[in-house]
Structure formats: C-alpha cells, structure tokens
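FAQ: What does the model actually see?

It sees only this:
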Amino acid sequence: MDVNGVEFVSARYRHLLSHRKIHAQFFVYRVEEIPALLKTDSVVFEDLLGLPIHRLIEKFISDCPGFFKLDGKS
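And it is asked to produce this:
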C-alpha cells in the first residue's frame, strides 16, 4: 500500500460501556490506490450514511465536519 502520510489525527476519545472502557484515536491516511484486497470489502464513504455506525465512530466523524462531509456529497 502506497501511503503518502497521515492526513489527519483525531483527538483521543473515551467511550464507556457497561463492562469496558474504550480509549481510541483515529488516524486517516491518504493513499494513491486502494489495494485489491481492500477493494472487495470496502464501502464508499457516502454509503456509510445508510448503515448503522458505532457511536464512537459517529462521534469522530461529527467532530470533523470540515474533513468528512455527511450530506452525501464529497
């Protein structure tokens, strides 16, 4: 995978479940081409709008409105 570098590093998140604490930080990389292995299981970002999204990922996306466009336009 040809990685040009880190495009964005998120803030650190803490997500509390009834039985576990999740500490997370998201890293977004820009790549020249998606490897063939990932193409078969990948989802276009705009298609995520119609899928259930874990609250932690939803928070990350909503905290970065300039980076991710959630209106279905990229």
